């Protein structure tokens, strides 16, 4: 037997009677029943309305920043909020002093920042430089006079909640309050991921419940409006509907900007949008469907666009740096992997006394492999029937000593700058991160080091283009931070890098296509250290026929 849904008599024509206090608590709190319930299947739907994560995240971010920075009109703190605490009989020490002066009328609470702390947070945002196309210029959003952030769009709130706000709060607030706020930011980072392990969703749900309980201990009750409450239901929607980026409002908001660009006659905006939309659809159909065999949908692979974006400076390079760059190309070319193994066996046979000294063998191989493989390939080419590929032939012969250097370069659709160019630009595109297998030595006397995967953090010093006659190899000459004393991870999971402690001086080069772009934010606690943050991984085509697309994609 199905339970019938009650029909409330209230509405615009039948207003509900006035509230009578405690005697009327049994009265339903809702005054309207959705007309969709007249559909027979509506009451059986598990998700009747999708919650928009974009606007929930934006509203939570505005409430959080408004309360922390005490922004008039956006803060959830005030005399009425303090009187609510008095009425509820909790936190009596925060009761307002209505007879005192205005500046001391509200006692300082756990969520209030002092003047110096506000300057620290706003100063951190003011000095931030983010990669190109990552977000708006954060510098322009900060008002140091009013100590507030102005004009933030939905995507600006998105990147603030995901990465920037936890860094700016590192040096302010009490630790329990700071941890609770950072946990809320990490929750949005987790639910906005592209993929999930279903087994971890219950843990995420329990974490957000615990996080809101922690926030209730430190923030006023007025902070917990409907938007903060809706975060409880987001994990359930992920279980039923999948990742949030399939249904949030970012693509629709971006397309609204495109439609606004169609308007030429402001007296007839709808007609302008309709005509331009039809014209664009017709042109795209003829250009992309009839004249091209490409199918529509998500591209199967990342954009492989690699090109120079600055003028070249030709330099004659000899000596150790030139050999390092050539060795980097050899080590990252798969066709030479068998030659490295053969050369190692050759060294063990030639120097039997160092057969068990792995460190010496590796150093000797790095010194002599380029000349050895060049002679080896020349001997194999003398045989009429050989299997030497063109790639192996030209790389083994060595590059030209005239090297082209660039200050900016696009690799797989991502813009990279040198550190020198970064210092005079508004965005930061010189930070790089590399995962590589390397030999780890315990001490100078360690003869049996271990090979393991390590993470390297640094900045691009120079961009080289190695000329191997038939093809070019873009290389990044980087200033790497010392792995042992220049990189550390704190208790909240932030990776801190001291770029002043330089290391790996004998291995400065990296193949441009093997590095990932990151950016650094100065640590508010210790200016000598920087927090390393990684931007979203791009797996879309940002260029259409060599021109920038009209809208900026937001990806994770």
Concise description?
Helix content is 36%, strand content 16%. The chain is of the alpha+beta class and 556 residues long.
Description:
The chain has 556 residues and is α+β, with helices and mostly antiparallel strands. It has helices spanning 53-68, 79-88, 115-126, 138-141, 154-168, 175-191, 201-218, 226-230, 234-241, 250-261, 269-290, 320-331, 337-350, 358-381, 390-397, 419-422, and strands at 142-143, 148-149, 307-308, 313-316, 402-406, 408-411, 414-417, 431-440, 450-467, 472-481, 487-489, 495-497, 502-503, 509-511, 516-522, 530-534, 543-544, 547-548. The strands form 4 sheets. Strands 4, 5, 8, 9, 10, 11, 12, 13, 14, 15 and 16 form an 11-stranded antiparallel sheet that branches. A hairpin with a 4-residue loop joins strand 1 and strand 2. It starts with 52 loop residues before the first helix and ends in an 8-residue tail after the last strand.
Q: Give the radius of gyration.
A: 30 Å
Helical percentage: 25-40%
Q: What is the number of E strands? A: 18
Number of helices: 16
Global mean pLDDT: 86
User: What share of residues are in beta strands?
Assistant: 15-25%
> What would the principal axes of the Cα set say about the shape?
globular
Our measurement of the CA-to-CA distance between the termini, rounded to an integer number of angstroms, reads: 47 Å
Largest sheet: 11 strands, antiparallel
Regions with little confidence, pLDDT below 50 for 5+ residues: 540-556
């Amino acid at each position: 037997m199905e339970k019938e849904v009650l029909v409330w008599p209230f509405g615009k024509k039948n207003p509900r009677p006035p509230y009578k206090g405690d005697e009327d608590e049994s009265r339903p709190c809702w005054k309207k029943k959705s007309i969709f319930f007249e559909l027979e299947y509506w009451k059986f739907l598990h998700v009747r309305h999708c919650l928009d994560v974009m606007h929930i995240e934006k509203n939570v971010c505005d409430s959080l920043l408004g309360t922390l920075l005490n922004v008039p009109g956006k803060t959830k703190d005030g005399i009425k909020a303090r009187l609510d605490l008095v009425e509820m009989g909790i936190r009596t020490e925060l009761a307002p002093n209505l007879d005192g002066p205005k500046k001391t009328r509200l006692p300082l609470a756990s969520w209030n920042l002092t003047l110096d702390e506000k300057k620290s947070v706003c100063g951190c945002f003011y000095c931030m430089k983010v990669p190109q196309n990552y977000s708006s210029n954060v510098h322009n959003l900060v008002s140091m006079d009013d100590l507030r952030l102005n004009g933030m769009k939905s995507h600006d709130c998105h990147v603030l909640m995901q990465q920037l706000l936890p860094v700016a709060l590192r040096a302010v607030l009490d630790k329990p309050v700071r941890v609770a706020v950072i946990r809320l930011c990490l929750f949005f980072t987790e639910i906005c991921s592209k993929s999930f392990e279903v087994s971890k969703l219950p843990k995420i749900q329990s974490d957000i419940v615990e996080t809101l309980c922690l926030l209730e201990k430190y923030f006023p009750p007025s902070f917990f409006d409907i938007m903060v409450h809706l975060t409880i239901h987001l994990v359930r929607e992920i279980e039923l509907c999948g990742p949030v980026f399939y249904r949030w409002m970012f693509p629709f908001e971006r397309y609204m900007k495109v439609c606004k660009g169609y308007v030429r006659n402001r007296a007839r905006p709808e007609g302008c949008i309709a005509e331009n939309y039809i014209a664009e659809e017709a042109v795209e159909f003829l250009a992309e469907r009839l004249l091209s065999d490409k199918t529509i949908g998500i591209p199967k692979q990342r954009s492989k666009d690699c090109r120079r974006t600055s003028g070249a400076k030709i330099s004659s390079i000899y000596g150790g740096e030139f050999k390092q760059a050539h060795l980097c190309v050899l080590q990252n070319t798969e066709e030479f992997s068998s030659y490295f193994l053969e050369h190692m066996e050759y060294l063990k046979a030639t120097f039997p006394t160092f057969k068990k000294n792995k460190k010496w063998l590796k150093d000797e191989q790095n010194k002599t492999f380029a000349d050895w493989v060049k002679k080896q390939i020349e001997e194999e080419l003398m045989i009429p029937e050989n299997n030497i590929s063109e790639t192996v032939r030209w790389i083994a012969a060595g590059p030209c000593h005239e090297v082209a250097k660039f200050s900016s370069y696009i690799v797989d659709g991502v813009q990279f700058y040198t550190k020198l160019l970064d210092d005079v630009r508004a965005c930061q595109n010189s930070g790089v991160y590399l995962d590589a297998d390397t030999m780890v030595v315990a001490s100078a006397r360690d003869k049996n080091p271990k090979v393991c995967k390590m993470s390297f953090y640094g900045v691009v010093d120079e961009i080289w283009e190695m000329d191997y006659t038939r093809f070019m190899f873009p290389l990044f000459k980087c200033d790497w931070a010392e792995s042992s004393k220049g990189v550390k991870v704190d208790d909240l999971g932030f990776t801190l890098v001291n770029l002043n402690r330089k290391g790996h001086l004998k291995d400065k080069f990296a193949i441009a296509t093997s590095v990932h772009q990151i950016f650094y934010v100065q640590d508010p606690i210790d200016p000598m250290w920087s927090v390393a943050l990684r931007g979203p991984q791009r797996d879309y085509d940002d260029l259409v026929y060599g021109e920038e697309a009209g809208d900026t994609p937001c990806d994770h």
